[in-house]
Design brief:
alpha/beta, 6 helices, flat
Amino acid sequence: MTLPGWNDLESAKRIASVIADITVGFWALMVLFELSALIWKRYQKRLVAIGFIAVAFAVAGEVVERKYGHRVDVLDEERYNKTVQDLNSKINAANMAAQVAKSENSAAQKKAEEAETFSAAARRVAQDAQTQADTLRKQQAPRSLSNEQQQKIRSYLSKCPPGSFEINASINENDARPYAEQIASVFRNSGWSVKITNAMFTGPDVSGLWLTIQDPQRPPRAAVDLNNALGAAGISNRVEYDSTFTDPMRVTLAVGFKPNAVVGKP
């Protein structure tokens, strides 16, 4: 059985986005019913059961969303391949026209020059398409620390006292948890204490990495060293402040969606 919008790229993208939003809604309902079960003991069993149903729908949504996400990648790759093939066909045709034109008289020479100009333009278009495709693949590739980045972080930390911080990894981005584990491993090997938890982020900007501390006027030493170590490895991050932190020494590093990614799409 063919799923709705399965063979159309734009439809698959829209459906994947809608499923992602619905999935987030079910996760939110699960949290709501679990909290309600703790408050209203009289209806605890019923609320917990509803919460489990919400979890089931959320997990199902994640599965369907992943299927559509993979289908979007396949359709996008097919579109790209067809574009490159069409452009290559035009380039070949233009080159052949140029060769024929060069063997003709002066009037045909003008045609050859026009064909060569068209061929160059087509090659530029093909090169631009290749560049865009390479950029897209790079954006969609899972984030990871290169050996050089790990070495730069270790080198910087060798000059700092061990500290501690928490990493909150987005549950809605496939590579967030593995990327967080890799960052934590480098710091742990340098004597740092790092705790990792899964998290769900909301807000206008939940992409990339960001540090959160309580007071910008008195940043903890661990926050300064963490920020500088990531910067030494060329890993961009921003700093945010949360006055509700009860511990002024608390430092968190959030791993959100990949930069330039569409929120809700894996």
